[in-house]
Amino acid sequence: MRVEPGRPLRMAAMASLRTSTNEYYRSASYARRSDMKQRRCIIQHLAEFSYDRPIQSIRHPQEFPLPARMHAIRQRAFGGPEVLEFVEVDRPVPGPDDVLLRVLATSVNPADWKIRSGTAALPVQPPFVPGFDVSGVVEQVGDRVTRFRPGDEVHGMPTPFAGTYAEYVRAPAADLAAKPAGLDHVQAGAMPAVGLTAWQALVRIARIQVGQRVLIHAAAGGIGHIAIQIAKAHGAHVIGTARAANHAFLRDLGADELIDYTVEDFATAARDIDVVFDNIGDAYGARSLDTLVPGGHLVSAIWDRPGVTSEQVAERGLRFDPVQVAPSAADLEELNKLVDRGLLRVHVERTLPLRDAAKAQELSETGPVRGKLVLVP
Known about the structure:
By secondary structure, the protein is an alpha/beta fold. Helix content is about 30%, strand content about 25%. The protein is built from 13 helices and 15 strands. The strands form 3 sheets. Strands 3, 4, 5, 6, 7, 14 and 15 form a 7-stranded mixed sheet that branches. Strands 10-9-8-11-12-13 form a 6-stranded parallel sheet. Strand 1 and strand 2 form a beta hairpin. Helix 6 crosses helix 7. The radius of gyration is 24 Å and the shape is globular. The relative contact order is 0.12. The N terminus is likely disordered.
């Protein structure tokens, strides 16, 4: 039998196309695309393939048309979990500096249910799609985007109210970083908001140093368990407040000392502290001042109710700063370096389908939660 020049290459290309297409058929993305017109497009494309076509004309399944509609969680009003609805909406279109992400994971943060209930300051009014964190795959890039291309796996905390409780998200490319190989998408989707909060509090604001004594409140929570690892990676002596049931978990993350706040007063148990990172607020902030050395630093993630004022803290010869997390690809890349070095991992307590966002927020609100809760479209 005569073999045509280039035929083996075309046969290999056909096999590659079949493999990638089969993987696509098995994916959740294909299962969601119930539009029969799109499925007919795929079938027709395969039927038209022949060995005589140039190899460069073969298209990867990701190049097929994206759906015009998507599923998302929409908050229709302020109130309880019942105001969150699983709906179908238009898929967003990226601007010139944006990327369109196919969301593979997002996560629940306390800010989500505080915004839902109307207790947190909000620059927008319902209805809107909630959510801050995202991990996923780039589907489209804007005209001015050079950092990413379709197919890249990324994660981040896009500029607030990008609306990550959805199947697709439009996100500024400047707010995203490449997903580290050491995290799967569920873990990568859980990290951005809590990781950035902890990094900006301890590294950017407190500027923790080797040998300092750092006290972290709510150490087993989303922010706290990341903060433990960041402080340890910077050479600090780390003390955490947590229930006894979480002590083994936190020791494994690097905590040097642990205080069970249900049976022991942290204000007397913790002494000579250089930096307190408070994730509880109110009375915890005021009582934490008693643990600090002269010139010590209180940093609070509860910026709207820290329990102290700058004037009160200054009168005692101490320092105080609230931290309001901000999107930062640079900070996220620093966190990813810790992941790559084996110094940071993300604990996910539970993964729920996107349609169960109301249940997930209720679990977060009633707590306690070890680590994070993640939503998967």
